[in-house]
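Subject: for your reference before the review

Hello V.,

The reviewers asked for a structural picture of the protein, and I figured it would be easier to keep everything in one thread rather than splitting it across files. Below is the amino acid sequence we used in the manuscript, unchanged from the supplementary table.
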Amino acid sequence: MNRRLFLEVMQSGLLLMLAAAPLHAQAPAGPIALPLNAPSEKAPDSNSSGQPSPRKPQQPSTLRVRVELVSAPVTVLDPRGEMIMNLPQSSFHIFDNGVEQKIEHFDLGGQPLSVVLVVETSSRIEPMLPQLRRTGIIFSQVVMGETGEAAVLGYDDGVSVLQTFAENPDRVQDAIEHLREGTSGAQLNDALARAVGMLEDQPANRRRVIVVMAESADHGSESKLGQVLREAQLANVTIYTVGLSTTAAEFRAKLDTEGPPEITPPGTFGLPPMPGVPQTPGTEAQRYGNMDLMALAVWAVMHAGSEIRKKPLEIAATATGGSNVSTMRDKSIEKALDSVGGELHGQYVISYRPPGDEPFGYHEIKVTVDKKDVKIRTRPGYYLAPPTSQ
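And here is what came back from the structure prediction:
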């Protein structure tokens, strides 16, 4: 075969091969569009030597708890102890760790309430059950108000939902009037944890409140009070407590030592210092006005895993901006509940939105008003835990 004939045969074979090639092997015109969820392929990173760089190990993701909105109930009292209910928003100033915040929302007793009534039903308070049943009308009319809703929990060796959230005051009253005696346990902390969980599911535009009628003691709970109060603070829940004092309870109280327990070693402090203020016994006493319950409440929240055996009702109320009333006589239970209702519907609520980069740890809340000779009660703060690895 001569050279010319060989070239003609090779050219014919090449044309046949190109004609037989499948259409999908042809390169599309323009750039290649990857599916939206398809990962793009990249060449491995190279270092200066031209060799592929080792891939960096993937860091575990972290979950950070953020506070979207902080709401603080504020009770302002005159020198006679009467509530002041005619102050404008411009008179209030609220501080987070010493930094004044912009008030996002201001209200005076107008927000609808979501209330969980927590009642001890153990055999320990059996003599007081008739008086507790008679509080149904006061709770449904005075505490709930016209736009409120309420649920009822009872607790002894366990926690029972006696009434789910209802706007009908008759249903709530009926649940209270039919309280039954239970066993000898008193799982107060577990009942509070259940109540906080129920309120977290309620709309954010409602005030979240827990009212407790119980002895100031916990027996058998799995929940720690400090952790419950952390969650209550982050959920903007306010706790009001009515301490029941039976003869047995009064006897047990006498066995306790007088005065609050020491919560930190001598010479140490349970709360971080205020910015720019030296931390001394004198400044701390001035900071809280010698209010030992405030220090106990802050310590309990900061040390959420510790056991809190004394004054759980008082600590719960102080940590969330509520109040505690100890009833020494049966008839004072109704009076105490009536006062709770009066405060709830005549109380200021101030809300602010943190910037989003707030540091971890305890955040102290302070409220001032442009009026002399008044006493202000509000929640002491909230705790932001460090991020957790996932």
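For the response letter, the relevant points are probably these. The mean pLDDT is 79. The first strand starts at residue 62 and ends at 63.

Happy to draft the paragraph if you're swamped.

O.
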